[in-house]
Amino acid sequence: MAPIRLLLLAFAVYRLLVIVGLTVDPAGLLRLGLDGQLTVDPSDVETASNDFGLLTRAEPMAVLHPASAEDVARLVRAAYRSTRHGFTVSARGHGHSINGQAQTSDGVVIEMSGASREDGHHHHRRKKAARPRVSVEEMHVDVWGGELWIDVLRSTLEHGLAPKSWTDYLYLSVGGTLSNGGISGQAFNHGPQISNVHELDVVTGKGELLTCSEEQNSELFHAVLGGLGQFGIITRARIALEPAPKRVRWIRVLYSNFSSFTSDQEYLISLHGNPASQKFDYVEGFVIVDEGLINNWRSSFFSPRNPVKISSIGANGGVLYCLEITKNYDESNADNIDQEVESLMKKLNFIPSTVFTTDLPYVDFLDRVHKAELKLRAKGLWEVPHPWLNLFVPKSKIAAFDEGVFKGILGTNKTSGPILIYPMNKNK
Description:
Pfam families: Cytokin-bind, FAD_binding_4
Distance between the termini: 73 Å
Order of helices and strands: HHEHEHEEEEHEHHEEHEEHEHEHEHHH
Organism: Turnera subulata
Strand content: 15-25%
Largest sheet: 6 strands, antiparallel
EC number: 1.5.99.12
Helix content: 25-40%
Number of strands: 14
GO molecular function: cytokinin dehydrogenase activity; FAD binding
Radius of gyration: 25 Å
Shape: globular
Cofactor: FAD
Structural class: alpha+beta
């Protein structure tokens, strides 16, 4: 009789697993009634198995191209109810993470950025894809969490508006950067991107679709912004806007003295409360430990007919520091731009012979890194491993960091990668 009893028990357990949804396979997920496309297509699975870093790989069971926030919620609810023997879910925007944060093994990757792209990836479109909705009166835009910032910019510029705070690279998803912080040279003035959000729609870990803001579900709002995707999936964000300038005066100056470089950065970001005419709109910088970097990194800013030579400047320990600053303007204040820039630069202590200036449209400045990407793609240098590290270093430790890392490790071990320095006001 024992074998029969065991067989009956096994049958009962199998029925239980099916009833409560603990067995998971792509065919079972199709019964969730999703409006979007759930696929096991090898090309989709391959794309979702990797990210920009190309340092880790995790192959999902399936990939979901959601048609709506409710699709995301249905899938997460299924995963939540299948906790004991179920599956994991990971949201993927542009897949620009570097250590597998957007990957999951034997689970489901939600491809949030469903629109077609210039790079040819992610050719599926959301069935109910909605364009960003701009409110000119209230100066905000509502966008899908998987929307790319470049598309947000294009939509808002149709109304003469633009988001206040950016990342250096615009081919990233809104939900992706808001889950991390969203830092660029404007952050000293407006704070990072997460400081410029009015409202979110979020799918929680239980599969609930909730709206949150400072006033509504505020704990969730602050957990999700900068929460590294651990508190929910952003399906909609309401982003603050401002009038978009037409053009940018883009200036680079060089330093051989690190103390002068950081002092000038700190001075410039201390002006964030001043009127627009009395401060720069963007303050950033980078470290130069290789002659090629200054002429090639991220743009063709310096003229190829007149390349800058580190050896001709007398770099301290073979290291130079470049301060990048910009001033926005349009027709109404174009006549004053030279005077405003000159007044601000009088108080800086850069090497006098190293002022390099260019003027360009606002859009071209914001999208400058993409142009470098296209060049690297053409040379086969984009789809390569990208080890990357971001650190917040306090003012009290930055001089020691320069000695130990910039002049020490990097000064003797040349790198072709970028070393960026963003000065930040802590209260932002």
